[in-house]
């Protein structure tokens, strides 16, 4: 346990000094990727795990060496599973949500999971359970013993778990456990919700939730940017639905949290820009990095509390002007990644050149490989902390995607 003297959760901006962050160090779940199922698993390629872990450790080191406390998802899960009530609840939920009908098979899997130690069970819940691992009795073999051609897992692996940005978002002092769009990522938020419900670090801080993992309309954290203590931007994207945004906005406005406006930035629904933070991130009080190929395609809407208790939604014309007005700034700078050359910009955007993680105003973490975009940021007086990303990038996410800030200091 740390000597924290502040509450566990507090995020009122994208850029305030970062104090505590949740990461997941890529692990065995990446070794369950096979070419046939890459699309379903939301990957284009299979990373080299050992190298990926080195890169991730470098990322974590850049944070810890600046005094930022790093919590690891797998440790929190393991500690949660050490509590008997949590363990039974988590295994029951996993079994209820299995894509398996047979009651006897479900029971076999339940018993197998419950027989594992907390550490092994945590690994299984992340790396998945392959059909080969479920024992067959000598005289009653299942068909999966003979037929190996189909999907190899009863419990899918979670190779996207290292993108901790997406399954949870701290807004003010509460946590939104996000409803993921794709089946491949749904268990990520279920597990986060169980950690928030049972882990002493969360229970002792009395953490409340804005949103639960299994709601109807999808919303993912890569689309949520807390621009200021009053304004939140939410991307409407291939992953985040208009209904999910409205629902969250209503809940936020209902509480007296200081947030008074949600700016909706609708981006084209495409793989290369699956979330708003793949094309637009905040790097300083009045500066944003943006992928130039997208600026003219973004549609902007302002949502405020309506006079009769609902929402007032107003289409806005111009991103830059809307941002300055909403943030109460004279002007803002949109820094185009790729340095004005669209080919470079597209290549670097694909490698997450626009996906910056701010650790304090004007200081961001980025991948070293995006040399042109990093230089442009520096030319705009942004301090750039570079990390390697040859393997990490293969899951299509950068430093912001790989991190869930839990606490930022406010001035
Ligand atoms: N915020 C982000 O853009 N996260 C990256 C998520 C990448 C992951 N392979 C996915 O498709 O969900």
From TrEMBL:
Gene3D superfamilies: Arginine deiminase, L-arginine/glycine Amidinotransferase, Chain A. The active site is at 401 (amidino-cysteine intermediate). The lineage of its organism: Bacteria, Pseudomonadati, Spirochaetota, Spirochaetia, Spirochaetales. One of its GO terms (molecular function) is arginine deiminase activity. GO terms for biological process: L-arginine deiminase pathway. InterPro entries: Arg_deiminase (IPR003876). It is an enzyme of class 3 (hydrolase). It catalyses: L-arginine + H2O = L-citrulline + NH4(+). Keywords: Arginine metabolism, Cytoplasm, Hydrolase. Belongs to the arginine deiminase family. It comes from Salinispira pacifica. This is Arginine deiminase. Its EC number is 3.5.3.6. Pathway: Amino-acid degradation; L-arginine degradation via ADI pathway; carbamoyl phosphate from L-arginine: step 1/2. Its main location: cytoplasm. GO terms for cellular component: cytoplasm. It is found in: Cytoplasm.
């Amino acid at each position: 346990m740390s000597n924290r003297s502040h509450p566990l959760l507090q995020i009122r901006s994208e850029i305030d000094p970062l104090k505590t962050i949740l990461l997941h160090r890529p692990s065995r779940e990446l070794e369950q990727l096979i070419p046939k199922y890459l699309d379903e698993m939301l990957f284009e390629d299979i990373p080299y795990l050992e190298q990926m872990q080195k890169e991730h450790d470098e990322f974590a080191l850049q944070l810890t060496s600046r005094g930022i406390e790093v919590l690891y998802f797998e440790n929190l899960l393991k500690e949660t599973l050490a509590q008997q009530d949590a363990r039974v609840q988590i295994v029951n939920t996993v079994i209820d949500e299995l894509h398996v009908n047979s009651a006897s098979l479900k029971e076999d899997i339940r018993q197998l999971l419950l027989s594992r130690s907390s550490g092994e069970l945590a690994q299984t819940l992340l790396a998945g359970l392959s059909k080969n691992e479920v024992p067959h009795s000598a005289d009653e073999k299942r068909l999966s013993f003979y037929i190996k051609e189909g999907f190899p897992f009863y419990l899918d692996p979670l190779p996207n778990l290292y993108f901790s940005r997406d399954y949870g978002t701290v807004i003010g002092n509460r946590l939104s456990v996000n409803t993921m769009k794709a089946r491949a990522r749904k268990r990520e938020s279920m597990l986060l919700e169980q950690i928030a419900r049972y882990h002493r670090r969360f229970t002792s801080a009395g953490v409340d939730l804005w949103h639960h993992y299994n709601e109807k309309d999808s919303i993912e954290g890569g689309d949520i940017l807390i621009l200021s203590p009053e304004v939140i931007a939410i991307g409407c994207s291939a992953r985040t639905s208009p209904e999910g945004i409205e629902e969250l906005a209503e809940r936020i406005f209902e509480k007296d949290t200081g947030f008074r406006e949600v700016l909706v930035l609708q981006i084209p629904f495409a793989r290369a820009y699956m979330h708003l933070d793949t094309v637009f991130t905040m790097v300083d009080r009045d500066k944003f990095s943006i992928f130039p190929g997208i600026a003219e395609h973004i549609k902007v809407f302002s949502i405020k509390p309506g006079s009769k208790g609902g929402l007032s939604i107003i289409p806005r014309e111009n991103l830059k002007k809307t941002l300055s007005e909403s943030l109460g700034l004279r002007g803002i700078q949109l820094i185009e990644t790729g340095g004005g050359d669209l080919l470079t910009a597209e290549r670097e955007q694909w490698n997450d050149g626009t996906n910056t993680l701010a650790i304090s105003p004007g200081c961001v973490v980025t991948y070293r490989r995006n040399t042109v975009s990093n230089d442009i940021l520096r030319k705009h007086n942004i301090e750039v902390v570079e990390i390697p990303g040859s393997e990490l990038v293969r899951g299509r996410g950068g430093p912001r995607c790989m991190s869930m800030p839990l606490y930022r200091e406010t001035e």
